[in-house]
Amino acid sequence: MRKINLFLAAMIIFGADSSWAATRSRRYKNFRMRDKHDRATTPEKAKTAKTGTSAADEAPIMAGRWAPEVRAAINRFIETRGRGAPGYNAAKPPVAVLPWSDAMVVGDPAELVFLRMTTEVKFRINDDWWQIVPVAHGRQPARAAYEAFIHLSSSVWQNQPDYHRYRKTILDSYIGLCRGVGRRECRTYLMRLWAGWRADDATDYARRVIEEEKARPAAVEVVRAEESDAKGLKLRRGLRLIPEMRNLALRLRAAGVDVWVIDDVPQPVLAAAAADYGIDPSRVVGLRPVMEGPRVTASVLKPIPTRGGKTEIVQSSLGRPADFVLGRDSADIEVLEYGEGLRVVLSGDLALTAKAQEKGWLLQSSLAR
What we know:
Elements: H1 18-25, H2 31-39, H3 43-51, H4 68-81, E1 95-98, E2 105-106, H5 109-120, H6 127-130, H7 139-149, H8 161-180, H9 183-192, H10 199-214, E3 219-223, E4 233-237, E5 240-241, H11 243-254, E6 258-266, H12 267-274, E7 284-287, E8 289-292, E9 295-300, H13 308-318, E10 324-327, H14 333-337, E11 342-346, H15 350-359, E12 362-364
Parallel strand pairs: 1-6, 1-10, 6-7, 10-11, 11-12
Antiparallel strand pairs: 2-5, 3-4, 8-9
Helix pairs in contact: 5-10, 7-8, 8-9, 10-12
């Protein structure tokens, strides 16, 4: 399992072809001549008229750091399954399922937003909220520290030992859950901590944090309860888009592939992050909260988007296997095994690499390193 550490503006250029406009406005006396002129065009335009696609739709993905065989397989998938391929059905297009954190981007937006919420004390804290924090992972000391500084101005929090104790304890509650009960539970915890937020406000907040983290140099921040704390938490900062992955998402979508992102990231965060790659919000599935009107509750909808939960989401959303799956770690094995088609595995997870070799899936060095 990968180590646990703590968007896309598409430009559409409309150009006016003056020669085309002049031709259309010309009055032909010979209708055969008019038809002949209107049909005369470049091979690319002829293909667009016949199939509804253009040469740009089938352009290969950028070379970048792709392994040659992986790039060739993806390009072949676009050529043979995309909009320009025989038998392409826009009502039932091919589907691609992608992971997100430390796969499509460098970093984990779920953890970065959690860190910022903790630092800025942005949780909607009340008695019910404290019940979300496990007793075994610091509820009482975190609450005592919080109540000791929260009445003070935020401008002086950095000078308050209790603020630093609260911050480290809350952050450590997530890490402790990941180590103790597993990834499914600790990632669900990150969504539950949003309880009380309005959904639209949550996405807006996540978007602001992600923009700031994209501008921040990659670094490691050490969080200590006090200056003498020798057991500080080492947390990653900074988020990087991966050009090859952004290009992949764009090329698949341009070719008429139905691109989905499914990952164990709180839904407000994943929705904000995936916008960078032009993924349709309806195709972004993260940890989804149960809602009470416009507000998030502490309950999370099932299935959880990890391991078999990813497969359940694909089954319930699509009713069929994905035609192309990109796998990040062993939590993706089940969705990779569901059905046939193009399967590409990012190396780094030993269990997943072994399974890829057994199944004959293509291996690609991770681009998030």
